Amino acid sequence: MLSQLVYVSNRNRNCTEEEITKILTSCKRNNPPLQITGVLLYSDTKFIQMVEGESKVITQLYDKIKLDVRHSNVRMISYGPIKEKSFPSWHMGSRKIVGSLVDFKTEISKSDQEVFNKILNGQEENGVKVLGLLKKFF
């Protein structure tokens, strides 16, 4: 069964841009054989990631993600079955958020901006809202 998982975490200070490059390189190498797709948003202080694939593979991946020392306070926002992937050809898309400069693909409403701020502060737990907002980045 296909599943989708979204989590937020705090990026540790020792997680440099070089480490981000390593994360993305690893995803692009390891995800295709496991049929994992998804996106990673990151700032100087936060990670927001959505991954999708077979349920067992995603739960095993999340167990590994939680142990990664490059971030802390990993908090699952949503996890559940899906009918189809939201990002089927993205083995790991990424976008950096620099300060308050947020590069959305489309204009966002005030309510979407509020959801985004809640996500960054670890306060938003509605997976549908989070996914809708993630899609506006890509």
Keywords:
Alpha-Beta Plaits, alpha+beta, 4 helices, five-stranded mixed beta sheet, 5 strands, 138 residues
What does this structure look like?
It comes from Fulvivirga marina. The chain is an alpha+beta fold and 138 residues long. The chain has one domain: Alpha-Beta Plaits, CATH 3.30.70. It has 4 helices and 5 strands, in the order E-H-E-E-H-E-E-H-H. The chain has helices at residues 17-34, 55-67, 110-120, 127-135, and strands spanning 2-11, 37-42, 46-54, 71-81, 93-96. A hairpin with a 3-residue loop joins strand 2 and strand 3 (46-54). The chain is globular, with a radius of gyration of 14 Å. The protein starts with a strand and ends with a helix.
How large is the radius of gyration? Answer: 14 Å
And the CATH topology?
A: Alpha-Beta Plaits
Class by alpha and beta content: alpha+beta
Major beta-sheet overview: 5 strands, mixed
Strand order in the sheet with the most strands: 4-1-3-2-5
Overall number of strands: 5
The CATH architecture is: 2-Layer Sandwich
Tell me the β content.
25-35%
H and E order: EHEEHEEHH
Helix count, per DSSP?
4
Overall number of structural domains:
1
> What is the C-level CATH assignment?
Alpha Beta
Uncertain segments are none
Helix content: 25-40%
> What number is the mean pLDDT?
83
The coarse silhouette is: globular
Distance between the termini: 25 Å
